[in-house]
Amino acid sequence: MKIKQKLLLSYLIIIALFIAAGATITYNAIRMNQLQNNVKQQETINDNAYNYQQGLDRKQFGTLMYSADQEQEGSNIVVASADEETQAQDYLATALTSNSSLLAQFDGVLAIDTNTINPAISQIVTLYNGDLNSSAKYVQIWDQMTSVMNATATADTQLAAIRSDTQTNVQNAVNTSQNYTNFSIAVAVIFIGAITATSVALSIVMGNRITNPLKNLANIAQKVSQGDLDQRYYLKQNADPKTGDEIDELVDAFKKMINAYRMQEALLKEDEGKD
What we know:
mainly alpha; 2 domains; 6 helices
Protein backbone atom coordinates (compact mmCIF):
# COMPACT_ATOMS: atom_id res chain seq x y z
CA MET A 1 0.00 0.00 0.00
CA LYS A 2 1.41 3.36 -1.03
CA ILE A 3 2.06 6.15 1.46
CA LYS A 4 -0.68 8.24 -0.10
CA GLN A 5 -3.14 5.38 0.35
CA LYS A 6 -2.07 4.86 3.96
CA LEU A 7 -2.57 8.54 4.70
CA LEU A 8 -5.94 8.43 2.97
CA LEU A 9 -6.94 5.36 5.01
CA SER A 10 -5.94 7.15 8.22
CA TYR A 11 -7.98 10.15 7.16
CA LEU A 12 -10.99 7.94 6.37
CA ILE A 13 -10.77 6.26 9.79
CA ILE A 14 -10.95 9.65 11.50
CA ILE A 15 -13.80 10.75 9.19
CA ALA A 16 -15.66 7.52 9.99
CA LEU A 17 -15.42 8.31 13.70
CA PHE A 18 -16.73 11.82 13.08
CA ILE A 19 -19.62 10.43 11.00
CA ALA A 20 -20.48 7.85 13.68
CA ALA A 21 -20.47 10.54 16.37
CA GLY A 22 -22.51 12.92 14.21
CA ALA A 23 -25.05 10.25 13.28
CA THR A 24 -25.53 9.24 16.91
CA ILE A 25 -25.92 12.81 18.13
CA THR A 26 -28.22 13.67 15.20
CA TYR A 27 -30.45 10.68 16.00
CA ASN A 28 -30.62 11.77 19.63
CA ALA A 29 -31.45 15.33 18.55
CA ILE A 30 -34.29 14.05 16.34
CA ARG A 31 -35.68 11.93 19.18
CA MET A 32 -35.42 14.89 21.56
CA ASN A 33 -37.30 17.07 19.07
CA GLN A 34 -40.01 14.42 18.81
CA LEU A 35 -40.23 14.27 22.59
CA GLN A 36 -40.49 18.06 22.79
CA ASN A 37 -43.34 18.01 20.28
CA ASN A 38 -45.02 15.29 22.33
CA VAL A 39 -44.61 17.40 25.47
CA LYS A 40 -46.26 20.37 23.73
CA GLN A 41 -49.12 18.17 22.54
CA GLN A 42 -49.64 16.67 26.00
CA GLU A 43 -49.63 20.14 27.54
CA THR A 44 -52.22 21.31 24.98
CA ILE A 45 -54.37 18.25 25.72
CA ASN A 46 -54.09 19.08 29.40
CA ASP A 47 -55.12 22.69 28.76
CA ASN A 48 -58.14 21.68 26.68
CA ALA A 49 -59.22 19.08 29.24
CA TYR A 50 -59.02 21.83 31.85
CA ASN A 51 -61.03 24.17 29.60
CA TYR A 52 -63.72 21.51 29.16
CA GLN A 53 -63.76 20.95 32.91
CA GLN A 54 -64.13 24.69 33.51
CA GLY A 55 -66.88 24.79 30.90
CA LEU A 56 -68.83 22.11 32.79
CA ASP A 57 -68.40 23.94 36.09
CA ARG A 58 -69.48 27.27 34.60
CA LYS A 59 -72.43 25.64 32.86
CA GLN A 60 -73.49 24.24 36.23
CA PHE A 61 -73.07 27.67 37.83
CA GLY A 62 -75.00 29.37 35.02
CA THR A 63 -77.84 26.87 35.39
CA LEU A 64 -77.94 27.52 39.12
CA MET A 65 -78.18 31.28 38.50
CA TYR A 66 -80.90 30.74 35.89
CA SER A 67 -82.99 28.74 38.32
CA ALA A 68 -82.40 31.42 40.98
CA ASP A 69 -84.32 34.01 38.94
CA GLN A 70 -81.28 35.43 37.14
CA GLU A 71 -82.35 34.14 33.75
CA GLN A 72 -80.38 36.43 31.44
CA GLU A 73 -77.05 36.26 33.24
CA GLY A 74 -77.36 32.54 33.83
CA SER A 75 -78.30 31.93 30.20
CA ASN A 76 -75.28 33.93 28.99
CA ILE A 77 -72.95 31.87 31.19
CA VAL A 78 -74.44 28.58 29.96
CA VAL A 79 -74.09 29.61 26.30
CA ALA A 80 -70.50 30.82 26.76
CA SER A 81 -69.51 27.66 28.60
CA ALA A 82 -71.09 25.52 25.87
CA ASP A 83 -68.95 27.33 23.25
CA GLU A 84 -65.85 26.73 25.36
CA GLU A 85 -66.71 23.04 25.67
CA THR A 86 -67.21 22.76 21.90
CA GLN A 87 -63.75 24.18 21.13
CA ALA A 88 -62.09 21.88 23.66
CA GLN A 89 -64.10 18.89 22.41
CA ASP A 90 -63.08 19.47 18.78
CA TYR A 91 -59.40 19.47 19.72
CA LEU A 92 -59.52 16.56 22.16
CA ALA A 93 -61.52 14.33 19.81
CA THR A 94 -58.68 14.63 17.28
CA ALA A 95 -55.66 14.77 19.59
CA LEU A 96 -56.66 11.69 21.60
CA THR A 97 -57.13 9.38 18.60
CA SER A 98 -53.60 8.03 19.13
CA ASN A 99 -54.31 7.24 22.79
CA SER A 100 -57.26 4.87 23.05
CA SER A 101 -57.26 4.90 26.86
CA LEU A 102 -57.55 8.69 27.18
CA LEU A 103 -60.02 8.81 24.29
CA ALA A 104 -62.26 6.30 26.07
CA GLN A 105 -62.17 8.41 29.23
CA PHE A 106 -63.08 11.55 27.28
CA ASP A 107 -65.88 9.72 25.46
CA GLY A 108 -67.22 8.87 28.91
CA VAL A 109 -67.18 12.56 29.81
CA LEU A 110 -69.03 13.43 26.59
CA ALA A 111 -71.61 10.75 27.35
CA ILE A 112 -72.24 12.22 30.81
CA ASP A 113 -72.50 15.74 29.38
CA THR A 114 -74.77 14.72 26.50
CA ASN A 115 -76.98 12.16 28.22
CA THR A 116 -77.24 13.55 31.74
CA ILE A 117 -76.13 17.16 32.20
CA ASN A 118 -77.64 18.75 29.09
CA PRO A 119 -81.03 16.97 29.42
CA ALA A 120 -81.20 17.98 33.09
CA ILE A 121 -80.46 21.62 32.19
CA SER A 122 -83.16 21.53 29.50
CA GLN A 123 -85.58 20.12 32.04
CA ILE A 124 -84.70 22.88 34.51
CA VAL A 125 -85.42 25.52 31.86
CA THR A 126 -88.75 23.83 31.05
CA LEU A 127 -89.72 23.60 34.70
CA TYR A 128 -88.69 27.19 35.38
CA ASN A 129 -90.89 28.46 32.56
CA GLY A 130 -93.75 26.04 33.31
CA ASP A 131 -97.06 26.53 35.04
CA LEU A 132 -96.31 24.66 38.27
CA ASN A 133 -96.69 26.52 41.50
CA SER A 134 -93.48 27.88 42.99
CA SER A 135 -93.12 25.27 45.70
CA ALA A 136 -93.48 22.23 43.44
CA LYS A 137 -91.48 23.86 40.64
CA TYR A 138 -88.41 24.55 42.78
CA VAL A 139 -88.50 21.08 44.31
CA GLN A 140 -88.30 19.50 40.86
CA ILE A 141 -85.75 22.07 39.70
CA TRP A 142 -83.56 21.24 42.66
CA ASP A 143 -83.84 17.52 41.89
CA GLN A 144 -82.61 18.21 38.36
CA MET A 145 -79.93 20.57 39.69
CA THR A 146 -78.71 17.84 42.00
CA SER A 147 -78.47 15.54 39.00
CA VAL A 148 -76.44 18.20 37.15
CA MET A 149 -74.06 18.67 40.08
CA ASN A 150 -73.52 14.93 40.60
CA ALA A 151 -72.94 14.34 36.88
CA THR A 152 -70.60 17.34 36.70
CA ALA A 153 -68.60 16.04 39.66
CA THR A 154 -68.26 12.63 37.94
CA ALA A 155 -67.20 14.26 34.67
CA ASP A 156 -64.72 16.49 36.50
CA THR A 157 -63.17 13.42 38.10
CA GLN A 158 -62.69 11.76 34.72
CA LEU A 159 -61.26 14.94 33.22
CA ALA A 160 -58.90 15.23 36.20
CA ALA A 161 -57.75 11.67 35.47
CA ILE A 162 -57.08 12.63 31.85
CA ARG A 163 -55.08 15.64 32.98
CA SER A 164 -53.15 13.50 35.46
CA ASP A 165 -52.26 11.04 32.70
CA THR A 166 -51.09 13.83 30.41
CA GLN A 167 -48.96 15.28 33.21
CA THR A 168 -47.42 11.84 33.73
CA ASN A 169 -46.75 11.60 29.98
CA VAL A 170 -45.11 15.03 30.04
CA GLN A 171 -42.88 14.05 32.95
CA ASN A 172 -41.91 10.78 31.26
CA ALA A 173 -41.10 12.61 28.04
CA VAL A 174 -39.01 15.17 29.93
CA ASN A 175 -37.11 12.39 31.71
CA THR A 176 -36.52 10.54 28.44
CA SER A 177 -35.37 13.76 26.77
CA GLN A 178 -32.93 14.34 29.63
CA ASN A 179 -31.60 10.81 29.18
CA TYR A 180 -31.03 11.50 25.48
CA THR A 181 -29.26 14.74 26.40
CA ASN A 182 -26.99 12.96 28.88
CA PHE A 183 -26.32 10.21 26.34
CA SER A 184 -25.45 12.77 23.66
CA ILE A 185 -22.99 14.46 26.01
CA ALA A 186 -21.43 11.09 26.87
CA VAL A 187 -21.21 10.15 23.17
CA ALA A 188 -19.61 13.50 22.35
CA VAL A 189 -17.01 13.09 25.11
CA ILE A 190 -16.28 9.46 24.17
CA PHE A 191 -15.96 10.17 20.46
CA ILE A 192 -13.83 13.27 21.04
CA GLY A 193 -11.53 11.13 23.18
CA ALA A 194 -11.54 8.32 20.61
CA ILE A 195 -10.89 10.69 17.71
CA THR A 196 -8.09 12.42 19.60
CA ALA A 197 -6.47 9.14 20.62
CA THR A 198 -6.84 7.70 17.12
CA SER A 199 -5.42 10.83 15.51
CA VAL A 200 -2.41 10.85 17.84
CA ALA A 201 -1.84 7.10 17.40
CA LEU A 202 -2.08 7.29 13.62
CA SER A 203 0.21 10.33 13.57
CA ILE A 204 2.83 8.53 15.63
CA VAL A 205 2.59 5.25 13.73
CA MET A 206 2.53 6.85 10.28
CA GLY A 207 5.26 9.29 11.26
CA ASN A 208 7.52 6.53 12.51
CA ARG A 209 6.82 4.32 9.51
CA ILE A 210 7.88 7.12 7.20
CA THR A 211 10.50 9.16 9.06
CA ASN A 212 12.50 6.38 10.76
CA PRO A 213 13.41 4.57 7.50
CA LEU A 214 14.17 7.92 5.88
CA LYS A 215 16.48 8.88 8.75
CA ASN A 216 18.33 5.55 8.41
CA LEU A 217 18.59 6.02 4.67
CA ALA A 218 19.89 9.56 5.18
CA ASN A 219 22.60 8.28 7.56
CA ILE A 220 23.58 5.52 5.14
CA ALA A 221 23.62 7.97 2.24
CA GLN A 222 25.90 10.26 4.25
CA LYS A 223 28.37 7.46 4.89
CA VAL A 224 28.21 6.24 1.28
CA SER A 225 28.96 9.79 0.13
CA GLN A 226 32.11 9.58 2.26
CA GLY A 227 33.17 6.42 0.45
CA ASP A 228 31.92 3.80 2.90
CA LEU A 229 30.41 1.35 0.40
CA ASP A 230 30.01 -1.34 3.07
CA GLN A 231 26.79 0.40 4.06
CA ARG A 232 24.95 -2.05 1.80
CA TYR A 233 25.30 -4.58 4.62
CA TYR A 234 23.56 -2.23 7.04
CA LEU A 235 20.86 -1.30 4.62
CA LYS A 236 18.87 -4.47 5.14
CA GLN A 237 19.23 -4.29 8.91
CA ASN A 238 18.48 -0.62 9.45
CA ALA A 239 16.33 0.58 6.58
CA ASP A 240 14.42 -2.35 5.15
CA PRO A 241 11.13 -2.45 7.09
CA LYS A 242 9.18 -3.99 4.17
CA THR A 243 6.50 -1.34 4.36
CA GLY A 244 5.15 -2.18 0.93
CA ASP A 245 5.25 1.45 -0.16
CA GLU A 246 7.63 3.99 -1.70
CA ILE A 247 10.09 3.40 1.17
CA ASP A 248 10.75 -0.10 -0.16
CA GLU A 249 11.33 1.34 -3.61
CA LEU A 250 13.75 3.89 -2.18
CA VAL A 251 15.64 1.17 -0.27
CA ASP A 252 15.92 -0.92 -3.43
CA ALA A 253 17.21 2.11 -5.31
CA PHE A 254 19.84 2.65 -2.60
CA LYS A 255 20.87 -0.98 -2.81
CA LYS A 256 21.25 -0.77 -6.57
CA MET A 257 23.16 2.48 -6.26
CA ILE A 258 25.59 1.03 -3.73
CA ASN A 259 26.05 -2.12 -5.79
CA ALA A 260 26.75 0.06 -8.85
CA TYR A 261 29.37 1.99 -6.88
CA ARG A 262 30.97 -1.24 -5.69
CA MET A 263 31.05 -2.67 -9.19
CA GLN A 264 32.55 0.55 -10.50
CA GLU A 265 35.15 0.45 -7.72
CA ALA A 266 35.97 -3.19 -8.50
CA LEU A 267 36.43 -2.39 -12.20
CA LEU A 268 38.71 0.50 -11.37
CA LYS A 269 40.86 -1.68 -9.14
CA GLU A 270 40.99 -4.35 -11.81
CA ASP A 271 42.15 -1.79 -14.42
CA GLU A 272 44.79 -0.53 -12.02
CA GLY A 273 46.06 -4.11 -11.48
CA LYS A 274 46.46 -4.63 -15.21
CA ASP A 275 48.47 -1.47 -15.46
